[in-house]
Amino acid sequence: MPSYAIVGASRGLGLAWLQFLSKDPNNTVIGLVRDVKKTKQTLVEEKIENVHIFRGDMADKKSLEAAATSAAEVLPSGLDVIIINGVYVTEQTNKMTVSDLAAQPDLLYKDMHTSLDVNVLGSIYAVNAFLPLILKGAQKKIIFISSGHADIELPVPADVNDMVTYATIKGAVNMIAAKYAAELKSKDVKVLSMSPGLVATSMNNNPSGEELAYFMKLLGNFKRIFPYWRATPLTPDESVGHQFNIIENLTMADTGKFLSHWGNKTWL
Ligand SMILES: NC(=O)c1ccc[n+]([C@@H]2O[C@H](COP(=O)([O-])OP(=O)(O)OC[C@H]3O[C@@H](n4cnc5c(N)ncnc54)[C@H](OP(=O)(O)O)[C@@H]3O)[C@@H](O)[C@H]2O)c1
């Protein structure tokens, strides 16, 4: 009976994970969200059943520890897979270059520190809270959801000079994954940092006219770098299907790596 915990499961890819995993009645599926009541309502509307929802805020270490304690009650054989999916990201700074941000030091400080707190420290605290359950589980897999933006070889050829905080902090998440992998390899724990592809979620939806022009330029740049890309975002369900294949086939041979939903360095 495989078991999965999704941290940051209220919407977008996190919700798609709940939908996907709960279709198999053999799975035990746990979702950590900031607003339990709202997510439970969403689950009813989306007809998603067979999921345990607990409060877990990546900005609140204690809530993650409490969630792990609650989860332990429905995980007598431990936890097979934890997926750290939630993200703090703000539209306000996404389209700013490093120089733009440097010109607004208060904004830069707040953006970097909040992103560090939620996305890096929050990931660490989530993994740490669930680690005893992972060590008790059969599969022993820890998945950090990263982004192709964290590939240091992408910005120059793809002309992506913005997404500064997001890319920087996802790069830090990749390193945390590698460090956990080194720490836990003797315990047979497989750790992966994975990009889900470009996916139609709230991160990319409902662009204004100006945003659409920006987005089309970005897509053109990506298409130049990845000529085989179909040039449209994946649906959340498609992305989760690809990610699931990678997780299912994850072995110690790939522990600590940063891979795409294709299992390589093709981010789109
Ligand atoms: N979509 C893409 O194209 C794309 C590309 C590359 C990587 N990714 C990565 O894929 C993951 C999912 O992205 P998405 O597109 O599904 O994003 P999304 O639609 O914006 O959803 C973000 C999720 O993160 C949760 N979250 C935010 N702050 C949190 C916190 N402090 N504690 C717990 N959960 C929190 C949100 O919960 P609330 O409802 O409470 O706000 C929501 O469930 C992220 O790690 C993102 O960086 C996405």
What would your notes on this structure say?
This is NAD(P)-binding protein. It comes from Cadophora malorum. InterPro entries: NAD(P)-bd_dom_sf, SDR_enzymes, SDR_fam. It holds the Pfam family adh_short. One of its GO terms (molecular function) is oxidoreductase activity, acting on the CH-OH group of donors, NAD or NADP as acceptor. The protein has 268 residues and is of the alpha/beta class. 48% of the residues lie in helices and 12% in strands. The protein contains 10 helices and 7 strands. The protein has helices at residues 12-22, 36-45, 61-72, 91-94, 98-102, 105-136, 155-158, 164-184, 209-225, 236-248, and strands spanning 3-7, 28-33, 51-55, 81-84, 141-145, 190-194, 258-259. Strands 3-2-1-4-5-6-7 form a 7-stranded parallel β-sheet, sandwiched between helices. β1 (3-7), α1 and β2 form a beta-alpha-beta unit. The longest helix is centred in the middle third of the chain and has 32 residues, at 105-136. The protein is globular. The chain starts with a strand and ends in a 9-residue tail after the last strand. Bound molecules: NADP nicotinamide-adenine-dinucleotide phosphate (NAP).
